Amino acid sequence: MDYLADERKKAEFDVDEMKIVWAGSRHAFEVSDRISKLVANDPGFRKDTRTMLARKELFKNTLRKAAYAWKRIHDLHLSEEEASRLRFYVDEPAYTDLHWGMFVPAIKGQGTDEQQKKWLPLAYKMQIIGCYAQTELGHGSNVQGLETTATFDPQTDEFVIHSPTLTSSKWWPGGLGKVSTHGVVYARLIINGEEHGIHGFIVQLRSLEDHLPLPGVTVGDIGMKFGNGAYNTMDNGVLRFDHVRIPRNQMLMRVSQVTRDGKYKQSDVPRQLVYGTMVYVRQTIVADASCALSRAVTIATRYSAVRRQFGSQNGGPETQVIDYKTQQNRLFPLLASAYAFKFVGEWLTWLYNDVTQRLQASDFSTLPEAHACTAGLKSLTTTATADGIEECRKLCGGHGYLCSSGLPELFAVYVPACTYEGDNTVLLLQVARFLMKTVSQLGSGKKPLGTISYMGKIEHLMQSRCTVQKAEDWLKPSQVLEAFEARAVKMAVSCAKNLSKFTNPEEGFAELSADLVEAAVAHCQLIVVSKFIDKLQQDIPGKGVKQQLEALCGIYYLYLLHKHQGDFLATSYLTPKQAALANDQLRALYTKVRPNAVALVDSFNYTDHFLGSILGCYDGNVYPKLYDAAWKDPLNDSVVPEGYHEYVRPLLKQQLHTAKL
Ligand SMILES: CC(C)(COP(=O)(O)OP(=O)(O)OC[C@H]1O[C@@H](n2cnc3c(N)ncnc32)[C@H](O)[C@@H]1OP(=O)(O)O)[C@@H](O)C(=O)NCCC(=O)NCCSC(=O)/C=C/CC(=O)O
Ligand SMILES: Cc1cc2nc3c(=O)[nH]c(=O)nc-3n(C[C@H](O)[C@H](O)[C@H](O)COP(=O)(O)OP(=O)(O)OC[C@H]3O[C@@H](n4cnc5c(N)ncnc54)[C@H](O)[C@@H]3O)c2cc1C
């Protein structure tokens, strides 16, 4: 029986068409739909007991699943796209994520043609398994501070990779702990006693015969991480080198080269391309944010429609908690954010592909913008998603705290995204640097392009005032864009003015960093809002689909406007009355979305297997499932628990004795 059938009947739009919008294309939808069902129906990919397993058992099970996934990919002759979807729906962090997600891209992006020809076929066939070994015990954010050394030995034409201190131990790389045979290792290049900065090197770590560490290599797992199950399926590792020798041609030499006679040569590409793998991965993390958030929102929305508290009249049913405005005010902006992040993720993928093509044609002009966009949007979307998953847990009340809700594990797996691939604050400071540079160049005749083109309208934006007179005026895209542009430009200019008061710009930057981060957030929010609005300019087929997306877009920007109204009011763009009208319009949009809420999460097309949540199951039959699951917990295997006779019974006896006294 479908306990959510009545909710589904209320939908005012074509869910099948919305599924296609969400997937990105009909083809992408069909691939995702087919592969997600294939995974869901295969008992080899079960994950319902994951949070109950001890680490060793959990990890072995992950190894089994990764091997099984590889076998299925081969047996079914899956394409690269289908294989990547299969790994996604298996939904278990594993060494393969870093192999495919960082090791292969690092070689592709930083290796010469010759190096790619040698290493990629081995990696594609998984005849070698790689990790990305950059972070150390002492340094993660400060890449220039890494201590591992790669010293060129002209006698033998080799590099000597060495960890000179405890803090230079590589620490965190996923897949390194127990599985990787190779790593792209980042180290300071030293030639003839002269330092040439951080470079990547392909280093073999373990024997391909018996998997033992090679001479000079000390390697292991760094230990349990946050949460049950969760990211503990991953073997994040520690690695030390004691003068390990590798051939010269294992330095990744696309950006710079070391010749046989020890000369250091720089190609005509910017040295920042050494950081290129991080740019690539940050872009994928933005797309992943919409997946993680939409998953949590599906659970919270379906459960909020099932759950009833208070409000029964004449013995009738109580109120569905989704009908409380407070619940809507917490839930619907997250639903809207999931869609917003999806569309900005699509745009960012386009931007990344564009910059990659330009780089191939030696056009480096858009690299700083690509870095700022990937860094800023990675930071914005992962922070909002991690907070959003936790909010969804609270939206599910007490039951959200059960592992069987799926939310604790989802949060534990997701929350390190705020740290890895660049700590979110550190990345926002990169955006702030980019903004300050842009503001300082405004008078120079250099026209700001792309996502900072609004800075070109600085004179207009600094003086303009909001013209909203009634709540519906907040539905006009041009009005909204101007509001977000005026706020972003005014915050950036205010920071730039304050910075100019310092004689030492670096000191000023450090002193004002909290304000700079806020200016960076305002800029990034403008990007997300503008890309959502751009999406709505496209032809979107399907009955009611565009109208629902317009409502969600409105909820996204009006919620931000309400939350940050202090910024908007402080920059004098808005009056308090106009801010209040924005809030009136926001409430009206909640009412519009309410009957469509369950259908809007159905449009994500997640299987019950992928959701891994009793509260979010498609049929809404929550209570019997919760009740049955409780009895399946290993603690209920016996009526009297192990340890009773040892620890509980003596206490009870002692109480009896005391009572007698
Ligand atoms: C903090 C960073 C970004 C910069 O540090 P800093 O020392 O201040 O700068 P540099 O001197 O190195 O460079 C200054 C210059 O370069 C520009 N820039 C920086 N990064 C990039 C880039 N990626 N692409 C293009 N340009 C870049 C910067 O804007 C400056 O330009 P100017 O014009 O102002 O000179 C950096 O050190 C950093 O990225 N830190 C974070 C480290 C990080 O992300 N590590 C990830 C490790 S892998 C991982 O976490 C894996 C996780 C698992 C998983 O994903 O599943
Ligand atoms: C689950 C997980 C997986 C990972 N996988 C990998 C991997 O595969 N390969 C790899 O190489 N690395 C990996 N990492 C490491 C990760 O990239 C780093 O942890 C990350 O880059 C942050 O660096 P850090 O740990 O040095 O943090 P720190 O820089 O020490 O941050 C600590 C605090 O200091 C603040 N801070 C630091 N610098 C500044 C500044 N300049 N201004 C203001 N505040 C500052 C930060 O905001 C933060 O609050 C992984 C990490 C995790 C958690």
TrEMBL record:
Record-annotated Acyl-coenzyme A oxidase N-terminal domain positions: 14-129
Domain Acyl-CoA oxidase C-terminal: 477-653
Active site: E421 (proton acceptor)
A cellular component term, taken from the record's GO annotations: peroxisome
Cofactor: FAD
Residue span(s) of domain Acyl-CoA oxidase C-alpha1: 275-436
Keywords assigned: FAD, Fatty acid metabolism, Flavoprotein, Lipid metabolism, Oxidoreductase, Peroxisome
SUPFAM superfamilies found in the cross-reference section: Acyl-CoA dehydrogenase C-terminal domain-like (SSF47203), Acyl-CoA dehydrogenase NM domain-like (SSF56645)
UniProt entry tagged with the keyword Oxidoreductase: yes
Binding site for FAD: T135, G174
Gene Ontology biological process terms from the UniProt entry: fatty acid metabolic process
Entry GO MF terms: oxidoreductase activity
Domain of life: Eukaryota
Cellular compartments annotated: Peroxisome
Recorded family membership: Belongs to the acyl-CoA oxidase family.
UniProt-recorded name of the protein: Acyl-coenzyme A oxidase
Native source organism of the sequence: Penstemon smallii
